[in-house]
Amino acid sequence: MKLDKAAIRNEYQRHDRDTGSCEVQVAVLTKQIEALTEHLKANKKDHSSRHGLLRKVQNRRNLLDYLKRENEESYKELIKRLGLRR
Fold first, then answer.
1. Distance (Å, rounded) from C-alpha 18 to C-alpha 23?
2. How many CB atoms lie within 10 A of CB 75?
3. What tens digit of pLDDT does each residue of 6-63 get?
4. Domain with 76 in it
5. I need a surface site. Which of 9, 30, 47, 85 has the fewest CB within 10 A?
6. Are 56 and 29 contacting, i.e. CB atoms less than 8 angstroms apart?
7. What is the DSSP letter of 17?
8. Which pLDDT score, from 0 to 100, does residue 11 have?
9. pTM, whole model, 2 decimals?
10. Taking 60 as the threshold, does the pLDDT of residue 1 lie above it?
11. Does a structural domain hold residue 52?
């Protein structure tokens, strides 16, 4: 379940010291959501992880809404790169 956040940051960052832009945060959350989804397929009764998954999904949705308001071109590119349905 350990993610390589540094590799994700390197792929989605705007500049070399960027660690907290919307693009990076959404990419990290997406990878965490994918990992939690796989975990929950095997552990159907793990309700605390399910709650954490729902919080991560909501956080990602809020970040994506903000990015769409502020910079729609970046939003569209990010959606395409991550393969999200929105």
1. 10
2. 20
3. 999 999 999 999 889 999 999 999 999 999 999 999 999 999 999 999 999 999 999 9
4. 20-82
5. 85
6. yes
7. T
8. 92
9. 0.91
10. no
11. yes
- At residue 85, the pLDDT reads 87
The number of residues making up the chain comes to 86
Which pLDDT value is given to residue 2?
Answer: 72
Packing angle between helix 47-70 and helix 72-82, nearest 10 degrees?
Answer: 140
| 74 within a domain of the structure (yes/no) | yes
Tell me, rounded to whole angstroms, the distance of Cα 9 from its chain centroid.
11
Alpha carbon distances (Å) from 52 to 7, 15, 35, 57: 23, 30, 12, 9
Residue 67 CB-half CA count within 13 A: 22
Question: Which amino acid, residue 85?
Answer: R
Name the domain count of the chain.
Answer: 1
